């Protein structure tokens, strides 16, 4: 497959005055909870603050017993022990803690899965060596920056160019600041994720807050392997119907075969859990950061439209069939032991791969 990545919002709006009583901020609502190293943490919406200022607060620091009691009453308890899941997620470098929900069966954390934040190279995959001449911009790279060819992102860090355009960002040796207008994918996602269990589709991911069109969601990461290795693993995966192979082919011409693939089966990030839909709300784009080697571009997911809070994040595993999804896909990532599609959309093709 192919993918690409977009950046999170740039400037944070001026902070409004919070509602304060007795020197303390006032809790408007308790939205979620997680257990981190044995400490129960609650996501708090402060009265007078917008939602992007929500904070995680330890239970012993809460001073709103009525709201806590109401939250506990209304909370739907997990039917599976997901404590091992949270241990796996400790290594996640997401901007907000990832929550886990399973209210449909007794399945817990996937076995032998390691959460990583960037792809790892297998021994037989060359490290990119395409020379990159760093910029020395002091204007946030909004002018004539030599690293980029277009204004790929708007002032909110949302992608604003067509899906066929490769996205280029300033690299680690550039002199510009970390908040440079081109640095989106490398600065990480601001989406609040929940890994949720679905009755027929298995694990999936929902966004806990509304996400605007063009927002960077996540990068597809895993183990970078050669095409030959991917072919071998793909044949083995066919026996189980479970594969997470994603060809790095977005720079390939029609009929060309990718030199490398990303396998997120045992090593991956939040994108490991993304499900298929015949009407996806994410698109995939190629991104270049440290180099410009077309064989080893990054692959990132962006919101293809406005996405509502609580909506599942999906992409098309076989975009060549319907024209959706943002890139040609030869190998596919997935969390289904069947080829039957359960997306439930009006244009469902009934099967994931044609």
Description:
The protein has 354 residues and is mainly β. Helices cover 10% and strands 23% of the residues. The strands form 7 sheets. Strands 8-13-15-14 form a 4-stranded mixed β-sheet. The longest helix is centred in the middle third of the chain and has 14 residues, at 227-240. The protein is globular and about 60 Å long.
Highlighted features:
4 helices, four-stranded mixed β-sheet, disordered N terminus, mainly beta
Portion of residues in beta strands equals 15-25%
Query: How are helices and strands ordered from N to C?
Result: EEEEEHHEEEEEEEEHEEEEEEEH
Main sheet strand line-up: 8-13-15-14
Task: Name the poorly predicted regions.
Answer: 1-16, 322-338
Assign an overall shape: globular
Class inferred from helices and paired strands: mainly beta
Report the C-alpha radius of gyration, rounded. Answer: 21 Å
Query: What helical percentage do the residues reach?
Result: under 10%
Report mean pLDDT, rounded to a whole number. 85
Number of helices: 4
List the SSEs and their pairings.
Layout: E1 20-21, E2 24-25, E3 27-36, E4 39-46, E5 55-58, H1 65-74, H2 83-88, E6 99-101, E7 114-115, E8 120-121, E9 167-168, E10 193-198, E11 202-207, E12 216-219, E13 223-226, H3 227-240, E14 245-247, E15 260-263, E16 267-268, E17 275-276, E18 282-288, E19 298-303, E20 314-315, H4 319-322
Parallel strand pairs: 6-10, 7-16, 8-13, 9-18, 17-20
Antiparallel strand pairs: 1-2, 3-4, 4-5, 10-11, 12-19, 13-15, 14-15, 18-19
């Amino acid at each position: 497959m192919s993918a690409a990545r977009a950046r999170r919002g740039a400037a944070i709006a001026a902070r409004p005055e919070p509602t304060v009583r007795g020197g303390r901020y006032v809790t408007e609502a308790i939205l979620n909870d997680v257990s981190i190293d044995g400490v129960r943490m609650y996501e708090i919406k402060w009265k007078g603050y917008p939602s992007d200022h929500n904070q995680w607060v330890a239970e012993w620091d809460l001073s709103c017993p009525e709201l806590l009691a109401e939250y506990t009453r209304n909370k739907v308890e997990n039917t599976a022990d997901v404590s091992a899941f949270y241990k796996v997620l400790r290594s996640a470098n997401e901007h907000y803690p990832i929550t886990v929900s399973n209210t449909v069966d007794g399945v817990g954390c996937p076995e032998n899965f390691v959460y990583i934040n960037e792809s790892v190279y297998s021994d037989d995959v060359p490290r990119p060596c395409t020379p990159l001449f760093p910029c020395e911009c002091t204007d946030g790279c909004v002018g004539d920056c030599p690293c980029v060819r277009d204004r790929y992102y708007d002032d909110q860090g949302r992608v604003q160019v067509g899906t066929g355009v490769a996205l280029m960002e300033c690299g680690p040796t550039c002199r510009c600041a970390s908040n440079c207008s081109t640095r989106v994918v490398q600065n990480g996602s601001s989406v609040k994720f929940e890994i949720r269990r679905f009755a027929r589709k298995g694990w999936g991911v929902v966004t806990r807050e509304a996400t605007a069109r063009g927002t960077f969601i996540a990068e597809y990461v895993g183990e970078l392997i050669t095409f030959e290795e991917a072919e071998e693993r793909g044949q083995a995966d066919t026996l189980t119907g479970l594969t997470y192979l994603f060809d790095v082919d977005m720079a390939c011409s029609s009929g060309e075969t990718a030199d490398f693939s990303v396998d997120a089966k045992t090593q991956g990030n939040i994108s490991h859990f993304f499900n298929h839909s015949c009407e996806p709300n994410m698109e995939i784009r190629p991104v270049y950061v440290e180099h410009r080697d077309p064989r080893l571009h990054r692959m990132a997911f962006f919101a293809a439209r406005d996405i509502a809070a609580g909506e599942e994040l999906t992409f098309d595993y076989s975009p060549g069939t319907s024209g959706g999804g943002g890139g040609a896909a030869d190998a596919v990532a997935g969390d289904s032991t069947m080829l039957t599609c359960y997306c439930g959309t009006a244009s469902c093709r009934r099967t994931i791969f044609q």
